[in-house]
Structure prediction request, 244 residues.
Amino acid sequence: MTLAIVSALPEELAAIDAALHTTRTESLAGRQWRFGRLGDEEVVLCLAGVGKVAAATTTALLLDRFAVRSLLFTGVAGGLGPGVAVGDVVVGREFLQHDMDASPLFPRWEVPLTGRSRFGADAPWADRLAAGARRVLAQPHAALAGFGIVQAPALHQGLILSGDQFIASGAVCRRLQAELPDALAVEMEGAAIAQVCADFDRPFAVLRTISDRADDQAHVDFPRFLREVAAPYSRDIVMATLQG
Ligand code: ADE
Prediction:
């Protein structure tokens, strides 16, 4: 059965897309679903679009209509945890929607009627992804120097926050850090994918390269960072994971 590889933005999937031996393409729900082989693996690539609804639609279609066996999401995120620096990589182990708040009917962050605020990634998948990331990060990455990053990139594993906001404010960042001190990174899709995969009881894993610190500091050139760092990381780590 097919493995799904999904990103939000075209730039995040570009390098994997270039490595795909496409066998067929389908159009559905405003999305292109590209089927083919990546190494020895039968895969379908799809751009989800940005945000939780786009991610949930994509995930539900992949799991139901296209009956994929599991899902790998790859893209960028803002670093939240201390020591989670631009150029580092985060493998998500737990996911929480930081903008979910149905209080006082339900506790803050709890997805109503599920009794849960945190949804876990598939542990064996996340282990494989982390092992792939470790192998790739051990290689020198010349592109990082072009962004003034001199330290070796680190791998982090743990809680990722998702919400329908691009966080670019020191105040919001500090609030999230204070409220959810174990959060490593913030993005806009992971927790939605986690919830849909829990509904379908299907495994998934999420890989995020840190593109910014989610604060109001001067940001790196985002499109160039995606092209030169995040997209090649995604390709190399996904390939290393599939081969490992
Ligand atoms: N993806 C990359 N950086 C992000 C940020 N600061 N907030 C939300 N999603 C992101």
